[in-house]
Each structure stands twice: as C-alpha cells, then as structure tokens.
Write a structure and sequence with these properties.
Layout (H helix, E strand, L loop, with lengths): L4 E5 L9 H14 L5 E5 L14 H15 L3 E5 L9 H7 L1 E4 L3 E5 L2 E5 L10 H10 L2 H8 L3 H20 L3 H4 L3 H11 L3 E4 L6 E11 L2 E8 L6 E8 L2 E8 L3
Parallel strand pairs: 1-2, 2-3, 3-4, 6-7, 7-9
Antiparallel strand pairs: 1-10, 5-6, 8-9, 10-11
Helix pairs in contact: 1-2, 2-3
Length: about 250
C-alpha cells in the first residue's frame, strides 16, 4: 500500500536519566498526530529492554502516547534494535503498533525501500556479531525471559557497561557499516534504496553499485540519527526522501 507521508525514527535510547528525549518524542508525536500515514520506529526505542513484563512510569507514558498517536490515524511499526531486541507483541499491542522484522521492503511513492535497524551491516565488528548471534537465538531468549526481573536487570546493566568499554577502543570503521554488506543487501532485495539507523551517523549517501539493480547502477543509503543531542527523523513526502533534525526539548 502506498502512503502519502511516512515518518521514520530510530535510536532514541529512552531511559529515565534522559527525560528530555521522552519529552521530545511526546512533542514529535503531538505535532505529527493525524498528519502522516505511518510511523516506523527502526529499533532502539529504549536503551534497554528486558521483557514486556518490565514496568515503569516511562514505559507506560510512551506506550500511552504511541497508542494515542495511532488512534488519531497513523499506523505504527516497531522494529527490534540491538538494545530492545526482546520487545514483544504485548508491548506493541499497548502502543497500537505492529512488530516487523528487518530487513524488509516498504513500497512507497519514492520507490521500494529496504528497512532495517542497521546492526547487521556492521560486519567488521566481529565481537558484536558473535554476541548478536547468541542473544537472537530463541532458546537463549526463552531462558533469559524466564529469569526474575532483578536478574535480568543486572545482566542488562553489565551488558551496557561492556558495550561502553568495547566501543571506546574500537576503530571508527569497525563501528560503521561495511560497504560490501550494504551492496549485498541491495542486490539480495533488488532495490536501490536502503534506510536504517544504529550507527548514529545521520546522512544520505549516494551509492555507485558494482552491479546494476533494475538497470540502475545508482543507489541511496539513508541513515537516521540518534536522539542523544538532536532529534532526527526521515520523511517520505511528494516522492522524496528527506532527513531532518531539531533540538531536544529542555
């Protein structure tokens, strides 16, 4: 189904210590309520997610706001990120949203677009790719979610600290996407446009493809920014894809 205006966000990393990001999201939803056809959240909506049975004022506030946004008309689609990959249908239903798996194709007026969080493109980061392979296994997730909430919280905090330490010593190229992985994905899907988050490096990259796709050797990679210092979103309107940012709400 084609939509007239579609919005994309990712990497908000919502947590209690950053109420400015939550306030900014609420403002963003309010401004765009009833003024778009769909909102795609492409992963890492929350900084951590240890299961849909986790309860907090922040979670309740965000779920309620997203549900109000959906009731006003737009569809909402949630994709797992590397931080909130345990998010499930219980939370999605509270938001009036649908969980989608990436990579996937979205057909728009700007053409078909491959959507994904983006972490699977960072193939040079072998340490992370091994960790991802482990925690995405159904058996690992089932056993983890069966643990008490307190034990899961401790694991999540340790994982965050290990991630901070690891990231601090890795070269920039390791933390970014691998160009060949990007092209391989476009070739696999036979589409010329890719949209993702994860890397926190917002930009629109014009690509020259080694192998033509749909008789074109040109492609495009749209990268969403994180909401650490500014709020970023991509928009499809009038057959164009644009990238926008605005200041966080104090």
């Amino acid at each position: 189904m084609l939509s007239n205006r579609i919005l994309f966000i990712s990497d908000l990393h919502l947590e209690e210590s950053r109420p400015d990001i939550a306030r900014t999201l609420l403002q963003f939803l309010d401004v765009n309520s009833g003024h778009c056809d769909a909102l795609y959240i492409l992963g890492d909506l929350f900084e951590t997610w240890i299961g849909d049975d986790e309860e907090s004022i922040l979670i309740d506030e965000i779920a309620s706001a997203l549900n109000r946004f959906h009731i006003a008309g737009p569809s909402i689609y949630l994709m797992h990120g590397n931080r909130d990959f345990l998010m499930g249908n219980i939370f999605a239903n509270r938001c009036g949203a649908e969980l989608i798996e990436g990579p996937c194709t979205l057909y728009t007026e700007a053409g078909p677009i491959v959507l994904l969080h983006g972490d699977t493109l960072c193939t040079d980061d072998q340490e992370y790719m091994q960790f991802r392979k482990q925690v995405r296994q159904e058996d690992w997730q089932r056993k983890f979610l069966a643990k008490p909430l307190g034990e899961r919280r401790v694991f999540a905090e340790r994982a965050r600290e290990m991630s901070r330490q690891s990231t601090a010593v890795k070269d920039d190229y390791i933390m970014d996407v691998n160009p060949q992985a990007v092209e391989n994905l476009l070739v696999e899907f036979q589409h010329n446009i890719l949209l993702h988050g994860h890397t926190h490096r917002p930009d629109i990259h014009e690509l020259t493809l080694a192998k033509p796709i749909n008789k074109l050797n040109q492609g495009k990679r749209v990268v969403l920014g994180d909401w650490g210092k500014k709020a970023w979103y991509a928009e499809i309107k009038d057959k164009l894809i644009t990238l926008h940012s605005f200041d966080l709400t104090n």
